[in-house]
Amino acid sequence: MPLAYAEETKDSSYEQFAEVFARFQPLPESTTVVKSTEPTKGEVIYSDDDVESAEDSDAETKKPLSKKKQRKAHRLSVAELKQLVPKPEVVEWTDVTAADPRLLLHLKSYRNTVPIPAHWSAKRDYLQGKRGIEKPPFQLPSYIADTGIATMRDAVKEKEANMSLKAKTRERVQPKMGKIDIDYQKLHDAFFKFQTKPPVTGFGEMYYEGKEFETSLKEKRPGDLSPELVEALSIPPLAPPPWLISMQRFGPPPSYPTLRIPGLNAPIPEGAQWGFHPGGWGKPPLDEYNRPLYGDVFGVLPKVTDTGLGEPVDKTTWGELEPEEGIEEESEEEEEEESADVPMEGIQTPSGLETPSGMASVVSTVAGGLETPDFLELRKNARPSADADDSGPRSLYHVVPEKQTNVRGFMGSERGYDVSAVAGNALPVLGDERVTKKKGGVDVTLDASELEGLTEEELKRKYDASARGSAGVPGGKEDFSDMVAKEMAKKKQKMEREREGKRDNKFKF
């Protein structure tokens, strides 16, 4: 007993508790057990093995504890483990037997951790409790059943059931295809237009027995009244729920501060009326200055989107390719603007005369001098001028009659075309004088230096010679007989080589 405690016990106030304090003090080491002198009952010894020797008693006292007993002795209890971890709600009775309980509970309480299924320690096999429950037959999804495939399959099965054995055997040997014929457009719409996702579990959500029979409340939102609930509460159309009057008196529910409730902090629907008559929406909660207490119950305040909080979000897609026609459209617009400034009949000369051909006049014939025009037309005008003599109404095409000819030359053909039979000889023919006389005839390249000092007859003769002649063959057509003979000789040699090669391959075997 410590000295300070002994001095305190001398006081009379501690004498009555001295006996109680003495029970919690350790026994002194010098105390010895006094054997009683009373006679004891003798023990019956049946053999010498039962007698405990001194060596056996010493071995038992020196034998150390096993590792299993040491682990069990140092094992924490569930209450102690709950005091050591930050989230005691994840502690289970099996966690105390782990090698490192603190690390295990840290992993279990970590964010986005998927727990181990609860049936890992169950004695019974998994899903053995559903053996007595009748499993409903499989039903096709609604978007597949709408195609009518189930009805067609039932009709085919009913027809097969009424078939004879001979017909069934014949059908098994030679089956008929196309019994169930569904419109491909219906199948496309079923899988790409009306298909819905099946109900799946969320992240970290584990399945257990009987989970499919529980009521799912994930799709439910506070304040939304389903048609079943409206029918169960007998709420007529445009009538408020029965708890609206209590909310107007005591305020909105504190658990849902952002919930919009019509008649309390949101406008009532169109067609509804305020009042306490049957179907009325009560009285809106107002302060002493007739201002709504909980929100815009009359719908007169500006909306949150109209207050201009922050910059509007740009929802246009990025990375789209620009249309290739943009450059062409811009050039066409520029041409239209330029052509709008220029009159259709041509640019006026300083003399007041207009050029009838539509071409821009560069050099003025007036004695006043030269003037630079505002617009220069650099494109070639392939269309005939307005003063060209017309030979009548023009047609889009001409039908050229066919004629039978003999095969001539290497590239000869059995069919020919009578070009001279075309009405008016509209098709240009090289060397035809009727065509070359017109402005839109065949173009002939002549050197301007050779035309100086020539008369009209010499100029016409030179033109006919250059139009009808060809390079190296003056005044005649080019002779292709040499080229045809060479091609025929090459073809003949090639056929002979192929024939010899086939003969050699034949004798190799």
TrEMBL record:
Domain PSP proline-rich, chain residue ranges per copy: 217-270
SMART domains per record: PSP (SM00581)
One matching Pfam family: DUF382
Domain of life: Eukaryota
InterPro entries: DUF382, PSP_pro-rich, U2_snRNP_Complex_Component
Region spans: Disordered: 29-71, 308-343
Biased composition (Acidic residues): 46-58, 321-340
Protein name: PSP proline-rich domain-containing protein
Organism per entry: Agaricus bisporus var. burnettii (strain JB137-S8 / ATCC MYA-4627 / FGSC 10392) (White button mushroom)
